[in-house]
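2024-03-11 09:14:02 INFO worker-7 job=invfold-0412 stage=load source=structure_tokens
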């Protein structure tokens, strides 16, 4: 034990002299570390953090090898056990809460320390999730705001789990009755049978109200991405049969057009027809869906990996977006359209422009971005483009045929206050869900105890990649 450690070990918090001594020792240690951080030698690749890690499967294979060949690889196996944990997704998200319960919660485990959280920006995303033409009465009752319950101190993330809460002002779960007539298009029938329980117990959790905290988590992720120059932007491209012509412009100009549109489109000329179609569906007791698109600007090269199926970012994005309520299709770049064209009209030819070498794309340019920024499951320096198809809302005011689960007799499906069209909200949800997945991939690559460490590794990678 060194003298310093002995002094630290004998540190008595109650004694002011001891406290002063402790602060001096800590200050000296921090200074010593920052001097190391400024050392140009740090640009030499460090062996461990960026090195590929063996997966659990690899650990199993090593064990099998040891058994077959009678080798004693205890140390390797022990290390691999450690890797098995490290190889799990570094940033994890769990949500909890019912549609009419007290609150919705999101726990983010593995969010890096050192990010100053802008809470009003999270609230703005929550407000966008509640907006758009065609929403039902519920949105008038709720004014969602986020409360950050854990993981921050003085507005800055600590690296410990961050808990986000969005309270339900329409809390009435205990007073609500069971639903007897399952609604087609919902999990009512299937969930009640699977869990051998009530329809209410299923619909309360299956409801898209859960996306409030997924949006909050994504809005926090967007703040992390912004530290690396990345912007995520979602909008509506089609309502039912009405396709829009998205206007070109800078990101700020397009954002202004979207935010002024009742359906979050980039085509003011199409908005009147869209509003009229929603009004018509409302009158008819029917519902509508459509297509939304999300762009991620300035991603660095190499988020995701070709090396294993469950590390491919296109697959991870598709899973995350498909898990959003009512999403029935996900496309990356050209998506299904790629299948209808010859290769010469699909693949994005590669060029190099040294003037752009300092951009996240490192100077590698493409005239087209049909791949949507992803090749072999990795970002290729072009914007990521994800599209998602939302089915029409399942609860119709002019109800569909169903049965009474108790009597098994034919009856019409139950009706609870419902949206006619939630497409605009859906674009805000997909935007934030995509942001979260990209933040996960960013932390995997450059992660992640602290923002400072991530920035350092990001810069280090840009230098190495530019000189590749
Ligand atoms: C933003 C948003 C709002 C929604 N609002 C409603 C609604 O008011 N009524 C309804 O029946 N379904 C609504 N849905 C759809 C259902 O939540 C969803 O269809 C249902 O949970 C079944 O899941 P699935 O469509 O993914 O199979 C909404 C979905 C989203 C994304």
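2024-03-11 09:14:09 INFO worker-7 stage=emit residues=468
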């Amino acid at each position: 034990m060194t003298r310093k450690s002995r002094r630290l070990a004998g540190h008595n918090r109650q004694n002011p002299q001891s406290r002063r001594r402790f602060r001096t020792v800590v200050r000296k240690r921090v200074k010593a570390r920052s001097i190391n951080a400024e050392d140009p030698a740090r640009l030499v690749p460090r062996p461990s953090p960026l090195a590929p890690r063996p997966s659990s499967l690899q650990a199993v294979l090593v064990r099998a090898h040891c058994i077959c060949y009678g080798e004693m690889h205890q140390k390797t196996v022990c290390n691999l056990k450690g890797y098995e944990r490290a190889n799990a997704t570094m940033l994890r998200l769990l949500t909890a809460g019912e549609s009419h319960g007290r609150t919705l919660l999101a726990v983010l485990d593995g969010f890096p320390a050192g990010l100053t959280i802008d809470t009003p920006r999270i609230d703005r995303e929550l407000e966008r999730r509640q907006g758009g033409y065609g929403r039902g009465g519920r949105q008038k009752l709720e004014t969602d705001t986020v409360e950050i319950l854990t993981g921050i101190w003085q507005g800055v993330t600590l690296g410990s789990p961050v808990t986000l809460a969005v309270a339900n002002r329409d809390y009435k779960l205990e007073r609500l009755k069971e639903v007897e007539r399952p609604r087609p298009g919902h999990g009512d029938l299937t969930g009640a049978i699977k869990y051998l329980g009530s329809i209410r117990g299923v619909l309360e959790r299956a409801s898209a109200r859960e996306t409030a905290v997924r949006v909050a988590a994504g809005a926090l992720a967007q703040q992390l991405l912004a530290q690396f120059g990345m912007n995520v932007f979602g909008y509506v491209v089609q309502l039912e049969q009405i396709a829009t012509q998205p206007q070109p412009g800078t990101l700020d100009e397009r954002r202004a057009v979207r935010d002024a549109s009742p359906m979050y489109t980039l085509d003011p000329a199409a908005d009147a027809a869209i509003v009229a179609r929603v009004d018509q569906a409302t009158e008819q007791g029917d519902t509508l869906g459509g297509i939304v698109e999300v762009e991620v600007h300035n991603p660095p090269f190499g988020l995701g990996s070709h090396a294993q199926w469950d590390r491919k970012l296109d697959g991870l994005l598709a899973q995350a977006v498909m898990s959003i309520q009512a999403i029935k299709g996900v496309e990356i770049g050209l998506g299904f359209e790629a299948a209808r064209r010859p290769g010469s009209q699909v693949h994005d030819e590669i060029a190099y422009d040294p003037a752009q070498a300092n951009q996240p794309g490192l100077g590698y340019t493409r005239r087209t971005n049909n791949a949507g920024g992803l090749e072999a499951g990795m970002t290729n320096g072009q914007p990521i483009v994800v599209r998602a198809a939302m089915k029409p809302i399942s609860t119709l005011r002019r109800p569909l045929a169903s049965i009474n689960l108790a009597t098994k007799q034919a009856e019409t499906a139950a009706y609870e206050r419902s949206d006619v069209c939630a497409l605009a909200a859906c674009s805000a949800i997909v935007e934030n869900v995509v942001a979260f997945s990209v933040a996960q991939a960013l932390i995997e690559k450059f992660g992640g105890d602290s923002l400072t460490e991530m920035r350092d590794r990001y810069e280090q990678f840009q230098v190495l990649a530019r000189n590749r």
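2024-03-11 09:14:09 INFO worker-7 stage=report msg="The chain has a mean pLDDT of 87."
2024-03-11 09:14:10 INFO worker-7 job finished
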